[in-house]
Amino acid sequence: MAKTKALFPGSFDPFTNGHLDVVETASRIFDAVHISIGRNAAKKSLLSIDERLECISEAVAHLENVSVGAFSGLVADYVGKEDASIIVRGLRQATDFEYEQRMAIANDLLGKNLPTVFLTPHLENLLTSSTIVRDIYRHGGDFGHFVPGSVRSFLEKKRSKQK
Ligand code: PNS
Known about the structure:
The chain has one domain (5-162): Rossmann fold (3-Layer(aba) Sandwich), CATH 3.40.50.620. Helix 2 runs antiparallel to helix 6 (149-162). The chain contains 6 helices and 5 strands, in the order E-H-E-H-E-H-E-H-E-H-H. It is an alpha/beta fold. The chain is globular. Helix content is 44%, strand content 16%. 4'-phosphopantetheine is lined by residues 9-11, 38, 40, 74-76, 103, 106-107.
């Protein structure tokens, strides 16, 4: 039977418990999941792509069928390079929907019939976002509730070096 590989693109700046929640579910549904870190031109970044690669690789090390990489350019082009056939994105609340639907439709057109599947995280991760984590980080607060342990240690070390 043909194997289905899903691509999970995002800026993951930083990778949160919400992202991990979606990846864990996707890894149970699909044969393989590839997390692909991209740049969101609309957001001011906190971590470099290499830092994000390091954080995410550690956070998903327990998931055997999950790999991590980075891309530039269009997601629809990268899907083919990774031999994936479907895009996965997390969907938290109605406020996410318009943005996600626009992106799904653009990717479907660009990828010539490339579907996006939306996964909703568990209740405890429903209000988590990288934007909140970046804000708490920049104001010196405790973001531990929102990120995997490995990401927490990485960010705390980075912040202490900046002081
Ligand atoms: O986690 P984010 O910030 O919502 O991720 C956004 C990302 C990186 C997936 C999106 O900006 C993206 O796909 N960028 C690559 C350019 C692209 O393919 N654009 C067409 C779809 S809108």
